[in-house]
Amino acid sequence: MLVLSLAGGGLITGCSPQSILSTHSPQAHNIALLWWWMLGAAVIVFAGAVVLLVVAYFRRGVAGLPFVGEREGIAQSMVLVFGIAVPAVALVILFSVSDIYLIRQTAPPAPNSTRMTVEVIGHQWWWEVRYPGSAAVTANEIHIPARTRVNVVATTADVIHSFWVPGLNRKIDMVPGRRNRVLLYASSPGVYRGQCSQFCGLQHAHMSMYVVAQRPAAYRAWLAANAAPASAPASAAQRAGQAQFLADQCSSCHMIRGTAAAGLIGPDLTHVASRMTLASAEIPNRPAWLAAWIRNPQAIKPGDRMPDLGLSARQVSSLVAYLDSLR
Amino acid sequence: MSATATTGARPHLDRLGRVWEERPGLLGWLTTTDHKRIGILYFFTALAFFAAGGVEALLIRTQLIGPNGHVLSPAAYDEVFTMHGITMIFLFVIPMTTGAFGNYLIPLMIGARDMAFPRMNALSYWIYVASGIFMYVALVQGHAPNAGWFDYVPLASKQFSPGNNIDFYGYGLIFNGISSTAASINFIVTIFKLRAPGMSLNRMPLFCFAFLAVAFALLFALPSLSIAAVFLELDRQLGFHFYDAAHGGDPLLWQNLFWIFGHPEVYIIILPAFGIATSIIPAFAHRKMVFFPLVALAELLVAFLGFGVWLHHMFTVGYATLTTVYFAAASLIIVIPSAIQLFAWITTILTGTPVFKTPMLFIIGFIVYFIIGGLSGITLAAIPFDQQVHDSYYVIAHFHFVIFGAAVFPILGGMYFWFPKLTGRMYHEGVGKLSFWLTFLGTLITFFPMHIVGILGMPRRNYTYPPGLGWTLLNFIETLGSYLLTAGLVLIVLNLLISRFRGPEAGDDPFDGDTLEWSLSSPPPPYNFAVIPTISSPYPMWDKEDREADRQRLERGEGLLDAGHLTPATTAQDAVADEILSMPAYSIWPLASAVTLAGVFSMLLMGHFFIALGFIVLGVLAVFAWHHREVAAG
Amino acid sequence: MSASASGAAEPGRPPGMSGRPPAERSPGAAPVVAGGRLSQPTGWWGMVLFLCAEGTLFGSLMATYFYLDFIAHRWPPKGIAPPGVVLPLIATAGLITTSLPLLLAVRASRLGRRRRVLGLISLAVLIQLGYVAGQVLLFRHDLRQFQPNGSAYGSIYFTLLGAHHAHVVLGILLELGVLGHVLRRGLRNYWLIGVRSVALYWHVVNALAILVVLTQLSPSL
Ligand code: HEA
Ligand code: HEA
Ligand code: CUA
Ligand SMILES: [Cu+2]
């Protein structure tokens, strides 16, 4: 058991992208620290109890304990010490550390205490990201400046989702009728994986996203670029693709700023080509995958809100040509 | 008593046997009001549902054996894990503990001849069966509930779940709740009023204290669930707005109502296990429980405090910090009564003369896993940590250790422990030990890695997961573990099944048990006790002179109460002999009433409200007929 | 009686059970049995516990009412007038008077006065039927004002009242059941307990009625 938990510890630290122990912010770091301390204490308590059982086993068939025997008084005081005194102390310590001290760090940031705010809206099954004070809108990819306290406002467009980026901070549920907030802070530039952790229907398993922490300058550049309307199609293929997009149902669900496409059901595609992934981090953003997605999204995310539109190979390739140009 | 039955006693016993005889054959089982036969019915039904829930679990595990598994479609997976949760909680553990163990053993332990309301007891059983079938019809049709066992709205609302999957859940739980409510009333009255004269509360076995606590917890927890389900169906069927934020409702109302039931529920699941432990440990440690009064108090406290912690399931919904902190404190305080009991068990074993036969091994397993699961529970009460691992596999690990490790192990141990009493035969010790080790290791290998995979960020209720996140190997191990675990469980069933026919004679009291059921023949006679036993301590079987006194009274044919279905009732606290009740005989009406109720809910589900009304009328008539027979019998 | 007395003298050593004749086998003697009891009978306990569950049920309903009230910025919502106070209060007052005849009915039943029992219970039934009729009218009137599927307020308002009315109807059914049996088979111990349990049921339902009406009228009080 002890071995197992240590082995577990070893495995954990061999860090994995979504581990709560490969931390990149003071919040996550302190929670991880709390965990290691709790694990240590738990192992001790567990070991203690097991030792008692082992002793009992080796004295099987023998009455009572050495010296002590079956004396009721001794036995009772053992219950009082291990059953009340020790736990009481341990619990008071745990409570003060975690639920009085540490909880302040994970509590939502005080209003206006942060320089910037990002709105993340959960959808079945993707994340919409808006930047108040800027026209920028994106999906499944949250760009923030590193070493800056960011106030994330988490809401939902349909059912309950839960916004969780383990490497940076606690999770927060997105509940209809509530504007929940959580602090996002990345101590160094990097890409951190997050995933929806409240069951939200068929594709709950495929509702991931990335937080991209950038140097402030890079971030500002990204924001400006993303706020701009879509670039006009250059080649013939792209023009065909745009026509196709506007003609077909695409535009009824997707918005491409700067064109007539103003749908609100699906992600904003104005700068779709600039993203790392598609369909909430389910597939890489490469022309081949984009084509596969457009041809039959249901094959990639069964039950997804984007229907299979039965497009011909030609239509698809032109659409890809166009969308892939939207950097 | 057959062991001690001498020529002098024979005629009395024969007469009692005739008085308490039930109908033969199948009809006998359909009309029975004998708590022992009802207990056996409960047992096999619950075991079947355990198998079903287990098969669903194996489907889950097989789907997750590697990344991008394709055993189940996303839709099927959602139905499977939801039904797994519902089945195990509502159709397996609770019926198995209260229904099977409680029903069979409590009257035997308190020296009664039946439950206080024998026909209501039968009714509870038939309603339970009907509700189980009701929910499994859904699975067969492919419309099984699919929003998880706590079924959060708005995902469960008509808008996002248009099918009737969720209606099976809503109606099914209301239906099932009726059964549990009736059962808990029955238990409380039985324990309060039917204890043998002299068994004052401080002489009542701890087993009964545990079940008393469970019954009270059920009684006060279930209404909250039923109301929540009623609101849900009103929202879905008639367009009410209880949970609809857009019209002044609130999705969190559901979460509060559900967990106000849901947390007491989890202690309802564990307390019978405590009870079973407290009756197995003294028998194998050859020693009375350490600190009896404190343990009894702790059992009641756990049930009571369990009502004040529900919000710890909602630490991430965005409530004010202060609110959550209060519930974290409450969750930690609950640890104390659990710890008291834990160390009472350990010290009892330690300072006693323990022998580690199969039932005892399962109790050891239970203790070990209760510690692991309990400690992980403590970590979850640390809010910041919970806000990280909430709805991740860490939680799955926590509650499978406390549920499977801590709640189910004593059930398995109890199956071995009381098997000789039910069948008169002995299980195979060697195979028993083997089955324990398989189950023990299987549980560890299945559920321990879930802590780690949860900490590595794997959310629960994912029908699949991508490679490259460090989850693959651990999930593979878990799945293998679950197969090992299954082998162990099947071995238990086989061991008991074969021993039932091949096992050696066990005798009346193979383990030198401490409670009254061991004073009876194996299996016990329909009337349980020929003479109402003498009680002067919570360990009546170890008071040899009392048992001798009983034997002599039987010889003299004194206090037999053989003029009809008679059993004494006593005062609630001191168990002073008060009056003599004549118990109703077998009856078909409980079954009939349950059937009409099933009709009501099926019709509601199909939306035929007027036919449902018709069934309600039928139900009223059935209840009337039931009492008609009563008076005639009286 | 003597038997159980000696039992009281030295608990743990049960008296020879032969002491008293079992209740059910002495039909007319129900009062005797009732008189001889040291503690409440099982039937009474059953009803008490059932009522505990019922109380919790209404507890959750009323909690829900105030929960929704608490999170709403306007309660009742725009377009719905606060409930009228007078009629519901009068109706409730009428209903709770029925506790009195039932109280007396229990007294009478313990003395074995079968006629009086029948009369008093019937009286209670009449008043309660009147109450139900009145409530149906009020209900229809409310439904013309606003719908249960119009707002969360409507939902909880009508659900709470509906649940209460359902319990009143159930109570009347129970009374009729007892009446029928006492009429046909006389005051035997079993139905003596029946009378007591039904009376108890009504005392609780009446108490709940007060809470329900206060909840229902809280916006106007
Ligand atoms: C048998 C059922 C059972 C039991 C007994 C428990 C026991 C406990 N549980 Fe658990 N719990 C569940 C079943 C159970 N739980 C289920 C089913 C869920 C999830 C539901 C769902 O989401 O689907 C859950 C979820 C759950 C959560 C929510 C997690 C989340 O969703 O984010 C929390 C949070 O506080 C919690 C806490 C606790 C605590 C503090 C105990 C305590 O009572 C534990 C007390 C016991 C011990 C502590 C061990 C023995 C004592 C000692 C070893 C003494 C030494 C101790 C010290 C020195 C400190 N449980
Ligand atoms: C009492 C409760 C209980 C029990 C015993 C179990 C037992 C098991 N559970 Fe689970 N489980 C839950 C309650 C329980 N579970 C709940 C409440 C959830 C949450 C659901 C939700 O999220 O909504 C859950 C969720 C859950 C998940 C997470 C699903 C997800 O979130 O995606 C997993 C994954 O591995 C799992 C696995 C298992 C396994 C392998 C077992 C094994 O221990 C099962 C082993 C049993 C058998 C294999 C049966 C063997 C058969 C017999 C012995 C009978 C033979 C007799 C005859 C043939 C008549 N369970
Ligand atoms: Cu969104 Cu799960
Ligand atoms: Cu809980």
What can be said about this structure in brief?
The complex is a heterotrimer of chains A (327), B (634) and C (221). The two termini of chain B are 29 Å apart.
Total number of helices of chain B: 19
The average pLDDT of chain C is 84
State the oligomer. Answer: heterotrimer
Strand order across the largest sheet of chain B: 1-2
Identify the overall geometry of chain C. elongated
What's the main sheet of chain B like? 2 strands, antiparallel
Q: What proportion of the residues of chain B form beta strands (DSSP E)?
A: under 5%
**Which two chains form the greatest contact, residue counts included?**
A-B, 95 and 90 residues
Q: What would the principal axes of the Cα set say about the shape of chain B?
A: globular
* Estimated helix fraction of chain B: 55-70%
Mean pLDDT of chain B: 93
Can you walk me through this structure?
The complex is a heterotrimer of chains A (327), B (634) and C (221). Chain A has 327 residues and is of the alpha+beta class. Helix content of chain A is 40%, strand content 18%. Chain A has a five-stranded mixed sheet with strand order 3-2-1-5-8, with no helix packed on it. A three-stranded mixed sheet of chain A has the order 4-10-9. Chain B is an all-alpha fold and 634 residues long. In chain B, 67% of the residues lie in helices and 2% in strands. A two-stranded antiparallel ribbon of chain B has the order 1-2. Chain B is globular and about 75 Å long. Chain C contains eight helices and no strands. Chains A and B meet through helix 1, helix 2, helix 3 and strand 7 of A and helix 4, helix 10, helix 11, helix 12 and helix 13 of B. The structure holds heme-A (2 copies), dinuclear copper ion (CUA) and copper (II) ion (CU). The site of one heme-A (HEA) has 34 residues of chain B, from helix 3, helix 4, helix 14 and helix 16. Dinuclear copper ion binds next to loops of chain A.
Outline the secondary-structure elements.
The complex is a heterotrimer of chains A (327), B (634) and C (221).
Chain A: H1 2-13, H2 26-58, H3 72-106, E1 116-123, E2 126-130, E3 137-139, E4 141-145, E5 150-156, E6 161-164, E7 171-174, E8 180-184, E9 190-195, E10 208-214, H4 216-227, H5 236-247, H6 250-253, E11 277-278, E12 283-284, H7 287-295, H8 297-300, H9 313-323
Parallel strand pairs in A: 1-5, 4-10
Antiparallel strand pairs in A: 1-2, 2-3, 5-8, 6-7, 9-10, 11-12
Chain B: H1 10-19, H2 25-31, H3 35-63, H4 74-109, H5 118-141, H6 165-193, H7 206-238, H8 251-285, H9 292-305, H10 321-333, H11 335-351, H12 358-381, H13 383-389, H14 393-423, H15 429-455, H16 472-502, H17 544-556, E1 566-570, E2 577-582, H18 589-606, H19 609-633
Antiparallel strand pairs in B: 1-2
Helix pairs in contact in B: 3-4, 3-5, 3-16, 4-5, 4-6, 4-7, 4-8, 4-14, 5-6, 5-18, 6-7, 6-18, 7-8, 7-9, 8-9, 8-11, 8-12, 8-14, 9-11, 11-12, 12-14, 12-15, 14-15, 15-16, 18-19
Chain C: H1 2-9, H2 30-36, H3 42-71, H4 86-97, H5 99-110, H6 114-145, H7 152-185, H8 189-217
Bound molecules: heme-A (HEA) (2 copies), dinuclear copper ion (CUA) and copper (II) ion.
Copper (II) ion (CU) binds next to helix 8 of chain B.
